[in-house]
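Lab notebook page, bench 4
Experiment: in silico fold of construct C2
Operator: M.H.
Input chain length: 133 residues
Purpose: comparison with the prior construct
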Amino acid sequence: MVRKLLLNRSRSKNRRTNVTLMIKSTSNSWFFCALLQRKVWCDMIKIIKKKINMSDELKTKINWSCKFNNRPYQIIEGHLRIVEHTNLAYVEPHKVIIGDTLYLFFNEQKYFYIGNLKKKIPIADLSEYIARH
């Protein structure tokens, strides 16, 4: 993706500087390059992905609820995504697919989510919710 920007410089009122900003993505990195008055500035932002292990307590609750309701399930453990050299991080939730429904879980939380992070339900009601849906 290439974007061209016109920036006003404060040095002179009538002078405009052409800046070309190029953004390219690879599998885990983003490259930002800017061409400013024949000088090239490039930087790379790297996103680090670390696996988060699901707690044994949470696995036990999910396993018990699914076996109690005789439902097959699949667990996909979450990840921590960190933008290198910044203080930005994102925790991807653990995903559990029960039937056709996607359930989202976080370690150390009393709630789980269905489909997205808008609808939250207490973990104590997990077995009842699986039975109804």
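Observations: Residues 1-17 have pLDDT under 50 and may be disordered. The helical segments are 56-68, 126-132.
Next step: discuss at group meeting.
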